């Protein structure tokens, strides 16, 4: 292939890298994937201690045979090895462009397939196909919920704190899932297998419902129906597992903290030195943030979490199942901008530690009268 003169090519590359990174982050954040799972924490960040348990609590923890995780990309741990403001390290070798999104995840792209030099447009389908490799990588890395004692340095996942190994954990969380996807796809897939020995379920869903472009009234009606359906299915599971319910985080408040910060920096000295703002990314991958006011967003999160809380109380009163709401996760001061990942939306390293800690503490509440 004959490339245009070097200066022209590099000017276009500057734009292309920005487009690629933005598309990559949006796809990682919102794209769907096959059910599969995940592993352990990067030893680079494995400081701190596992909370201590007393004898009764330890007995309860050790009684868990298997744990099921239902949820979206927060539960899968996407970008959990990154931090807001991380540098992105692109490198060019011939026609290959490599973008180091994090320590263990690099997106490699062939410029001949990536860019139409006649129209100077990016082949989006090629980028999406290339990102599949990254999604698979994140399935084998740690999250707040999945992990286990069989993974070295995993001190912070709920699984490890419960003393489970990975063979005891089913992660049915999927990128981009909403409540309807969990109800009509994930749960039927799980129930088609033997679930008699599932003693604990983690239900983390709702952020993508919030970010949808449905009007609030329609969204709340749909959300309530789907969430009630999910809880009915869980209450009727053969083993009557305990359920940890993760509410919708205070998305507008968290994102507002990060809105004026840089999401990541792209540098190929001396040609490219660019930054992408959190606000630019947030407005692209979350229509609710783009199209509604801050106060409208805050009210909608409050309404969705009220639906969840009411359902938890109703099911605890009327069924034999036990649902524990991890309500601290919904508090506006639980997560700070520094706990976000490279995309200014999903939890990063510190955010996943926070999720794991709060979930474990909530699980211990099951043993309290």
SSE topology string: HHEHEEEHEEHHEHEHHEHEEHHHEH
Average pLDDT score = 82
- Overall geometry comes to globular
Question: Rg to the nearest angstrom?
Answer: 21 Å
Provide key terms for this protein.
alpha/beta; 12 strands; 44% helix; Rossmann fold
Report what the structure shows.
- The protein is of the alpha/beta class.
- The protein has a domain at 34-84 and 139-261 and 284-367: Rossmann fold (3-Layer(aba) Sandwich).
- The chain contains 14 helices and 12 strands.
- The protein has a 5-stranded parallel sheet, sandwiched between helices. A 5-stranded mixed sheet has the order 4-3-2-10-11. A two-stranded antiparallel sheet has the order 5-6.
- Helix 1 packs across helix 5, helix 7 packs parallel to helix 9 and helix 10 (251-258) packs antiparallel against helix 13 (294-318).
- The longest helix has 25 residues, at 6-30.
- 43% of the residues are buried.
- Mean pLDDT is 82; it is low at 1-8 and 33-48.
Summarize the structure.
This protein has 369 residues and is of the alpha/beta class. It has a domain of 258 residues: 3-Layer(aba) Sandwich (Rossmann fold).
């Amino acid at each position: 292939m004959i490339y245009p003169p070097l200066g022209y090519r590099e000017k276009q590359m500057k734009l292309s890298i920005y487009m690629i990174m933005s598309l990559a982050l949006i796809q990682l954040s919102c794209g769907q994937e096959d059910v599969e799972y995940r592993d352990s924490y990067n030893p680079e960040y494995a400081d701190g201690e596992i909370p201590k348990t007393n004898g009764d609590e330890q007995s309860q923890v050790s009684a868990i045979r298997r744990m099921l995780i239902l949820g979206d990309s927060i539960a899968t741990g996407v970008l959990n090895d990154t931090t807001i403001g991380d540098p992105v390290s692109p490198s060019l070798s011939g026609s290959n462009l490599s973008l180091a999104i994090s320590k263990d995840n690099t997106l490699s792209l062939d410029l001949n397939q990536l860019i139409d030099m006649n129209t100077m447009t990016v082949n989006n389908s090629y980028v999406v196909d290339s990102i599949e490799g990254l999604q698979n990588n994140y399935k084998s890395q740690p999250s707040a919920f999945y992990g286990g004692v069989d993974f070295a340095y995993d001190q912070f996942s709920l699984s490890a704190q419960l003393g489970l190994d990975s063979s005891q954990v089913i992660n049915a969380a999927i990128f981009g899932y909403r409540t309807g996807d969990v109800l009509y796809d994930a749960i039927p897939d799980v129930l088609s297998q033997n679930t008699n020995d599932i003693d604990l379920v983690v239900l983390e869903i709702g952020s993508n419902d919030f970010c949808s472009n449905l009007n609030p009234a329609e969204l709340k009606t749909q959300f309530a129906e789907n969430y009630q359906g999910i809880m009915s299915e869980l209450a009727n599971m053969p083993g009557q597992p305990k359920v940890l319910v993760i509410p919708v985080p205070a998305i507008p408040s968290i994102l507002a903290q990060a809105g004026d910060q840089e999401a990541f920096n792209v540098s190929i000295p001396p040609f490219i030195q660019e930054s992408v703002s959190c606000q630019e990314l947030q407005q692209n991958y979350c229509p609710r943030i783009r199209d509604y006011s801050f106060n409208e967003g805050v009210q909608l999160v409050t309404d969705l979490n009220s639906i969840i809380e009411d359902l938890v109380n109703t099911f605890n009163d009327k069924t034999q199942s036990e649902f524990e709401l991890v309500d601290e996760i919904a508090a506006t001061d639980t997560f700070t901008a520094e706990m976000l990942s490279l995309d200014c939306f999903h939890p990063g390293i510190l955010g996943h530690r926070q999720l794991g800690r709060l979930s474990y503490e909530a699980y211990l509440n099951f043993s309290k009268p």
